[in-house]
């Protein structure tokens, strides 16, 4: 079974062509394995004995204990229906966007469920140790075992629709089906390394991350794969792209690598995660990357918020209260009478509000803005500073 190490969610500060990752406050100290969003605001992180939830795009998180052990994978086929798979051979289901989760047991077995994929609310697949593949067509009430032809662990499964899917696993194994799993055909991977994560930008372009720095790429929907050169030997547990060119892979020893040319070349990033920890999952949501790690850390990149200038925090400027629900004030300790220009930039890099603050007027009304993470850009003459603002109502 995949040795998982947890990823820290943090905020990235753009520095030249590289990014520095910083932490988001996490309410949970145990290992975090997977992260997935229902929509732009509502998302979940799976941990050893807890589910973490956000309702503001990942700015803040709450934790709820669960009886199941080690959530490995989420799949959300609709705005309200979702599933997760975990180590004690349980697939759990929600029909109310995660308020309540109910266990669905796919044919009692000693094997862990490492990944789930539901192309529809009723049809889904669960994979795991010892070549396990199971399928449901009634929303998890009953499950049928499929013949994978494997005896080693299947780490990840991805379905494009109810018929076409790919699963990957230990020893460089890749299996593909076009008939809903009635038959699974072996696809050459070009490696014998364990394969841990699969990500598709569309039905043609996809990537796989695996052991000793392995990254694979397909441009024909997984029919053939090419091995890319990453220049590292750390195991990679997760991979994600924002477009055809820019993406990250992350894994053991706190390692994050980045490409801006579709995987042809890779450079190492400073993740801020201890080399004793692993980064287990990384996603792209709201124009930023978010990742989770061992020992409850969460990280995200603010650089993708689209600000034209480098983000520079300055202790002379205070934005409060933060988080806020309706307004915030700006204090500039060097000169309280200085005129300040304040711009508020949303997660899409769009300037949503501007205001001039002078004299005793130091308050900005944000009642009209939605919940989420914003960048507050403050300028006065040659001085400029940028602060993160959380709006939570």
TrEMBL record:
InterPro entries: PSII_CF48-like_dom (IPR028203), Secre_tail (IPR026444), WD40/YVTN_repeat-like_dom_sf (IPR015943). One of its GO terms (biological process) is photosynthesis. Residues 16-103 form the Photosynthesis system II assembly factor Ycf48/Hcf136-like domain. Keywords: Hydrolase, Photosynthesis, Photosystem II, Signal. Residues 1-19 form the signal peptide. GO terms for molecular function: hydrolase activity. The keyword S-adenosyl-L-methionine does not apply. This is Glycosyl hydrolase, BNR repeat. NCBIfam families: Por_Secre_tail. One of its GO terms (cellular component) is photosystem II. It comes from Flavobacterium aquidurense. Coiled coil: none annotated. Residues 319-391 form the Secretion system C-terminal sorting domain.
